[in-house]
Specification:
The protein has six helices and two strands, in the order H-E-H-H-E-H-H-H.
Length: 197
């Protein structure tokens, strides 16, 4: 069996670089900068245990996806590798843009701070959870980069279950705390894919 492009030649260096950029962007953009920026006083915290399952399922599913890629399970042609790398970087950019626009209201946990308000600029004009849109694009990119249709199925399933639950928790909390402002925002935007879902 011939190794897929991501596991041979220059492929591993390109894949590892994109993977490192993703990991570093999460540490810096989603964790360190929000901590340094400060959020203000937390008024409500309602994570409902949604953070831990996301971390656990994401890391397990990424391990499975990589093993499917190395194992050639439902292997895709080499050109998918390049599409996957581009999608990984696009997903990273979308997520970091969403985090930057949300500013001090962004948190890795579900919380509402004093003077919290609906943000409807930038990517939030089109979808309510653009940072998760970025994760979705990144997951699709990783699956294609490892050239495995099986990896795509695993990551999409995990995303749908874990992040779907998280989005419901966030929306319920924001509806309760922000009332009509958030309800009206929900009516004019889609959850994760502009004009579709």
């Amino acid at each position: 069996m011939t190794l897929p492009l991501f596991a041979a030649g220059i492929g591993p260096a390109i894949f590892d670089a994109a993977y490192f950029v993703w990991f570093a962007s999460e540490i810096i953009g989603a964790f360190l900068i929000p901590r340094l920026r400060g959020r203000g006083t937390t008024r409500v915290r309602r994570d409902r245990g949604s953070a831990a399952p996301i971390l656990l399922t994401v890391w397990i599913s990424l391990g499975i996806a990589l093993s499917f890629g190395y194992g050639g399970v439902l292997q895709l042609p080499d050109w998918f590798f390049y599409v996957g790398i581009v999608l990984m970087l696009l997903g990273i950019a979308v997520r970091q843009w969403a985090i930057a626009v949300l500013g001090r209201f962004f948190s890795l946990n579900v919380r509402v701070v004093e003077d919290h308000r609906v943000v409807d600029k930038g990517p939030y004009r089109l979808v309510r959870h653009p940072s998760y849109t970025g994760v979705l694009i990144t997951f699709i990119g990783i699956s294609l980069a490892v050239q495995s249709f099986a990896a795509l199925l695993v990551l999409l399933t995990v995303f749908t279950i874990s992040f779907g639950y998280r989005m419901r928790v966030e929306e319920k909390t924001l509806l309760t705390e922000l009332g009509d402002n958030y309800a009206n925002y929900m009516k004019r935007t889609k959850r994760i894919i502009p004009y579709l879902v």
